[in-house]
Amino acid sequence: DKDLSGKMTLTGAGGVNVDGGSVSIRTAAEGKLQLSTGDSNTASAGDISITGGRGVDAGAAVDISAGDSTSQDGQGGDLLLSSGEGALGGSTMIRSGAGAKQGGDLSLEAGESAGDGPGGSAILQAGRSTSGTSSGGSASVIGGMGMDGESDGGATSVEGGSSVGGTGGAL
């Protein structure tokens, strides 16, 4: 165990490896933690990979979450997953795991409200085109394909929200 105060920079020329045990990196109360690779002026910039380990019973979970607010009127931290900009914008993929017996589920859910305000909105929107000749991106919701024998395709359901005492949401 080593307690370091102040600014710390780890720079790997041939790579930095830590085997076994746990590694914890934490900033001071209002510190900022930044993990980034260097820029490149001649080729592709370096990648960042955060990967949970393999396990016999279960693979390691990877949890990326923004911070909570402890104030009654405070706001939790934002979480932004964004691909890079360029002449061709980078793609963003969120995919659950494949399984020999069952594939993993994928859930996207807006936050609930415990007070007088509404729950969070969920928006799935394809990209705009700011060119006069190109069309905007397409948005599709497609059930999974049954690939073997007589297996059925997956259903697709889109519905407005229900209400206990008011009017349900429109579709």
What features would you describe in this structure?
By secondary structure, the chain is mostly loops. Helix content is 0%, strand content 0%. The chain contains no helices and no strands. The mean pLDDT is 83.
Biggest β-sheet: count, sense, barrel?
none
- Class computed from helices, strands and strand pairing: little secondary structure
Overall, the morphology is extended
Question: Separation of termini?
Answer: 57 Å
- Residue runs with pLDDT of under 50 for 5 or more positions: none
Could you tell me the mean pLDDT?
83
- Beta fraction of the residues? under 5%
Spatial extent as radius of gyration: 22 Å
DSSP strand tally: 0
Percent helix: under 10%
The total of helices stands at 0
Summarize the structure.
The chain is mostly loops.
Question: Any key phrases for this structure?
Answer:
171 residues; little secondary structure; 0% helix; extended
Please specify the SSE layout and strand pairing.
Layout: no helix or strand
